[in-house]
Amino acid sequence: MKRYWKISSLIVVILLGISSYYIHSAYSAKQLPEYIIKKQEGNSKVIEQLVIRGGYSNKAETASEMIEISSEGSEYSSEKSFISQIKSMDDDGEQIENLKRKYRSFMRGKNGQNSFYEDKRNLVYAEIEYRFQDNRQKFDFHIAALDKKSNEETSFKMAFPEGEKYSNVQLDDVQFSDGRVNVITKNYLSTNDAGQETELHLYSFNLLDKKLLSEEVILSDSDKKENTYTDYEKLSEANSMVPSNYIVINKTFIEQKQHENGETVEDIKGNELFVYNLREKKEEEVKLPNEVQQLNGTWSYYDAGKLYISEAKGGKVRVVTYDFAQKKVENQWQVPLGENGMISLATIFNNGNMYLLAAEDEGAEQGLEYASVIVADLETGKTEYRGTVVNKNANTKSDGQAYLSELIIE
To answer: What is the model's pTM?
Structure first.
């Protein structure tokens, strides 16, 4: 699947590169606007590695290109070399880039933050490799490890157990303990419902012997009903590469209804939240209080035994902290997005903070001039930083429009 993703990314880069050429030519007489994140309040250090990604198009929307905005300024794809554009599509963030600099030989050809585990001594990697054979897709495990003290490398490949049962396999997490590599995967069953039925699996490997020790189905739907299927999604965590004793999974029940015109519509009938303990190899359903269940939470995130659920509503973002061990709501707070009917566009969590990108609702005349970046402390809700995305050359009016969609920490 990674192979196909990279091909798709290359096509996108080529198309955007061509588009960038035309938009850059159109603006040859006029400089493209230089956007920056302008501080309104707080500590600017918390956004030093923050980048806003989006697109920029001319007024007629006949040409567009990618744009990245930071506190230092903005960079357009037309300002990058073609190779740099391709490389940016394969960027896994500063953490992976740092590993590539430190362990160049071991890291060659390895990508994807969910594929790595790292502690003081070990760097472990797992990947699901795809190949087409006998008119069907097949899967292989690729396991590799580096002892950072001795610089000794271990690597092996293995055919995926009962791979014919699955139409696709997605790697969700890698953990390492007592010489065992634990790989958590989401397996798509080859069924009559177009492979939408999924299961969550745990594969344990003995690194020294290069053998599969066990395979366990963590979650599956044993009581499947007609025209319904279940989906399992591992929630985001602060850093998937560090040691963790558990994973948090959202189980969604989906019903399919077919209209007379043949169109199939999906309706979410319910959700359940599970915590899986990797050491004890058992799962437990998390019974959230009604006040938390009723939240229309778009983003959920967990870290150090706590679950964070956020809901954007009425120009504010409300955050609820739930403690797994105590089985209760520990804290809740809200942060205003700003004035002029602001809505939340993107949210990420990093280093104990929540980063929000907000802008005016669609169709607002001011558009980007009222886009804001807000950083809030996850524990207290205190606003650490608030800034506005503005054109650095305030006296220069742009003939185009920026559309922002993503936050990343470099």
So the answer is: 0.77
